[in-house]
Amino acid sequence: MSKTWRPATQLVHDGSLRSQYGETSEAIYLTQGFVYESAEAAEARFKGETEGYIYARYGSPTNDMFEKRMCALEGAEEARATASGMAAVTAAILCQVKAGDHIVAARALFGSCRWVVETLAPKYGIECTLVDGRYLENWEKAIRPNTKVFFLESPTNPTLEVIDIAGVAKLANQIGAKVVVDNVFATPIFQKPLELGAHIVVYSATKHIDGQGRSLGGVILSDREWVNENLQDYYRHTGPAMSPFTAWTLLKGLETLPLRVKQQTENASKIADYLADQPKVAKVIYPGRKDHPQADIVAKQMKGGSTLVAIELKGGKEAAFALQNALKIVKISNNLGDAKSLITHPATTTHKNLSDEARAELGISGGTVRLSAGIEDTDDLIEDFAQALAKVKA
Ligand SMILES: Cc1ncc(COP(=O)(O)O)c(C=O)c1O
């Protein structure tokens, strides 16, 4: 492992643990437990006097490789791999709060993330205030003496709002609170929340990190002190661990992450530009475009646009459904970050549980569709949109 390596090199080599056989591809250590040479060796391992694994619920070699590779990419000291993105989000938040604490979260969150802070946390006496996270003054106004955690996604799902991570981190530091960033939409290639001042980063590794529709997974990254003091015992005793088989899949995913994200972003950006000029399209929201409402913050904190595009059709739900049904290459799916281009209608799928009012606040209308661009040929995708739009009534 070298600190001077750039991401494309880190993602192929960092964290590799070679066995005595010298294998090229990382080995899958599909084991629940580990054996000890003697009773004394077991005692020493449990006392923490010797290095080594104890039980796969809290550490195993293939997971270790994935966690170390993620740490190198993210610039984090520690990582813990989880069975899904939601396991990562839930653990990262709940491990550091107790009854009587207060969370401030952006209201524009993936549906399940919003449920965790808005519905689950209050059941355990943890208060939550949701704010329009685009404006720093809203975060500041929501602070209470018991505020412990700020939680946000940026860009947000599905309307790609952008939040000033450095600004939120500054406010959090003033009161000793921690900022948790769900960095799924930005990807670790385009945005480094820890460098911007956030304290904890979480991913649904299901998305771009696997990127090939195979495994569910998640990861939490932070500094060693925070992990030791907050996450370690929670992770060990509540058991959200990732399977070593999944960790292996994700190690393979990481090797090609920069290539995939580059092609997906190029496709997303060209499709966004094409759609912005189409008469049946009311609006395109794309972080890489100059007309993005927070283009200044995008320029400040992101190294690239996005693999996702939010599209508002003039013809409402009827037009959104007609477009989805007419697309041939682009598949209808609520998933994202995949090598295959995917389109979803948030109002009837991912965000259907929100009230009409909450959806309106987030800019999700019947005519909103979210495209996750894949790695297919750009011209084929644009031609697919052209033939599908032709079938949408004006
Ligand atoms: C922004 C965001 N965070 C978290 C999740 C949850 O991830 P998972 O499905 O891996 O649990 C998703 C998607 O499902 C997401 O889009």
UniProtKB/TrEMBL annotation:
Q: Tell me which Gene Ontology terms the entry assigns under biological process.
A: 'de novo' L-methionine biosynthetic process; homocysteine biosynthetic process; transsulfuration
Record's SUPFAM superfamilies? PLP-dependent transferases
Asked whether the keyword Ribonucleoprotein is assigned, the reply is: no
**This protein's record includes keyword Transferase:** yes
Q: Record's InterPro entries?
A: Cys/Met-Metab_PyrdxlP-dep_enz (IPR000277), O-succ-hSer_sulfhydrylase (IPR006234), PyrdxlP-dep_Trfase (IPR015424), PyrdxlP-dep_Trfase_major (IPR015421), PyrdxlP-dep_Trfase_small (IPR015422)
This protein's superkingdom? Bacteria
Q: Which cofactor does it need?
A: pyridoxal 5'-phosphate
Gene Ontology cellular component annotations, sorted alphabetically? cytoplasm
Q: Which GO terms describe its molecular function?
A: carbon-sulfur lyase activity; pyridoxal phosphate binding; transferase activity, transferring alkyl or aryl (other than methyl) groups
Q: List its EC numbers.
A: 2.5.1.-
Reactions catalysed according to its record: O-succinyl-L-homoserine + hydrogen sulfide = L-homocysteine + succinate
> What pathway, per the record?
Amino-acid biosynthesis; L-methionine biosynthesis via de novo pathway; L-homocysteine from O-succinyl-L-homoserine: step 1/1
N6-(pyridoxal phosphate)lysine modification, residue list: K207
Give start-end of the signal peptide. Answer: none
The record describes its quaternary structure and partners as: Homotetramer.
Write down what this protein is called. O-succinylhomoserine sulfhydrylase
Write the lineage as a comma-separated list.
Bacteria, Pseudomonadati, Pseudomonadota, Alphaproteobacteria, Hyphomicrobiales
